[in-house]
């Protein structure tokens, strides 16, 4: 017998959001891990709001905001407006964030108002560090063999925003720079003053940009350190040296694989000062020749590091394909660094899930 096309909605419902999410859904282990990590940050969250006026309206829970920010990365949601819209009608998103079916979703401007607060207290950095700690506890990090690389991140600014710092081109329309040389010493973006003109090669145009730097462990390609910086010709090596200094304090001799851009005497010297063996690809065309000689390249570990270092491109490819870090939609170095750090935390979580971190420890 044919059924009737009718719609009868009951006055009351006892359905739980938990029942809509399959037990095998990939967000389940990530949400469990996320709740454990956020519970350890409770003291920090309390300190974030202790300066607020007493008796005011309660804020949106920072735990909910950070779960929502992670969802935005994992599901490639372009803006906070679209994220709020998705949370309002997507049952899966409501369950992950921690909103009941009856609760109203906050306004998208809440993210903008709280972004500076989260930056001030390094909340996203703590979340990223928690992913590294989880990987370490489960024996997924070698702690001895690393790879380092950087990538260009386009700023949320266009060519037309580039103007002279002294105001000498205020009487000309934006973008009319033909026949005039531009440099970071004389020009800046009026949309994002912290971005810098940078290009990947002589054939590519110079664009307002930042640089993102990542240090990965060679065992499973997990990110162990991440940082955004101003875009210039020295930042890749300077930031890489700082990140290696942070991981070289254990007294164990470690190695780092890198491409030809790191084959400079300054970077190689800094590595050896930190007890790091620089497995850097040789750039024999550089003036003065390569800084790496046969004493390093003769060992089998050098060839292995050169193969492993290429895996670092996976986190950049994932971030630019899944997450909008090819061109960020925030302005300022601190906000770019926060978005890059959150992206690499999400990347680690997806890798950890693939490596079976949802299983109990020791299983």
TrEMBL record:
Function (record text): Involved in the transposition of the insertion sequence IS5.
Q: Which GO terms describe its molecular function?
A: DNA binding; transposase activity
User: Under what name is this protein listed?
Assistant: IS1182 family transposase
The Gene Ontology biological process terms listed for this entry are:
DNA transposition
**Taking every annotated instance into account, which residue ranges of this chain make up the domain Transposase IS4-like?**
206-349
Q: Which family does it belong to?
A: Belongs to the transposase 11 family.
Write down the InterPro entries for this protein, in alphabetical order.
Answer: Transpos_IS5, Transposase_11, Transposase_InsH_N
Q: Where is the Transposase InsH N-terminal domain?
A: 16-117
Q: What is the lineage of its organism?
A: Bacteria, Pseudomonadati, Pseudomonadota, Betaproteobacteria, Burkholderiales
Disordered: region residues: 162-199
Which keywords are on file for this protein? Answer: DNA recombination, DNA-binding, Transposition
Q: Where is the composition biased (Basic and acidic residues)?
A: 164-197
């Amino acid at each position: 017998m044919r059924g009737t096309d009718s719609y009868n909605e009951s006055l009351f419902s006892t359905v739980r959001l938990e029942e809509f999410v399959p037990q095998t859904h990939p967000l389940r282990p990530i949400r469990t891990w996320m709740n454990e990590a956020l519970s350890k940050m409770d003291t920090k969250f309390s300190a974030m709001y202790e300066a607020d006026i007493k008796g005011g309206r309660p804020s949106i829970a920072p735990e909910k905001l950070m779960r929502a920010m992670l969802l935005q990365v994992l599901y490639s949601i372009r803006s906070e407006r679209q994220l709020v819209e998705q949370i309002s009608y997507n049952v899966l998103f409501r369950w992950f964030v921690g909103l009941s079916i009856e609760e109203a979703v906050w306004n998208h401007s809440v993210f903008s108002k709280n972004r500076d607060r989260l930056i001030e207290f390094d909340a996203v950095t703590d979340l990223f560090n928690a992913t590294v700690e989880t990987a370490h506890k489960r024996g997924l990090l070698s702690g001895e063999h690393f790879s380092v690389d950087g990538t260009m991140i386009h700023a949320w600014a266009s060519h037309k925003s580039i103007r002279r710092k002294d105001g000498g081109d205020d009487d000309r329309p934006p973008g009319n720079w033909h026949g005039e040389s531009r440099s970071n010493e004389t020009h800046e973006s009026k949309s994002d003053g912290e971005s810098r003109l940078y290009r990947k090669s002589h054939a590519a145009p110079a664009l307002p940009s930042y640089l993102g730097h990542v240090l990965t462990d060679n065992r499973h390609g997990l990110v162990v350190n991440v940082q955004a910086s101003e875009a210039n010709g020295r930042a890749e090596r300077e930031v890489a040296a700082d990140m290696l200094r942070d991981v070289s304090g254990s007294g164990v001799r470690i190695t780092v694989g890198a491409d030809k851009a790191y084959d400079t005497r300054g970077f190689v010297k800094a590595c050896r000062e930190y007890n790091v063996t620089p497995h850097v690809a040789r750039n024999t065309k550089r003036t003065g020749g390569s800084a790496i000689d046969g004493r390093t390249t003769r060992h089998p570990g050098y060839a292995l590091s050169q193969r492993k270092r290429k895996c670092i491109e996976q986190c950049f490819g994932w971030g630019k394909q899944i997450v909008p870090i090819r061109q960020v939609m925030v302005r300022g170095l601190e906000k770019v660094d926060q978005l890059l750090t959150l992206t690499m935390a999400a990347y680690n979580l997806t890798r950890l899930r693939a490596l079976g971190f949802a299983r109990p420890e020791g299983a």
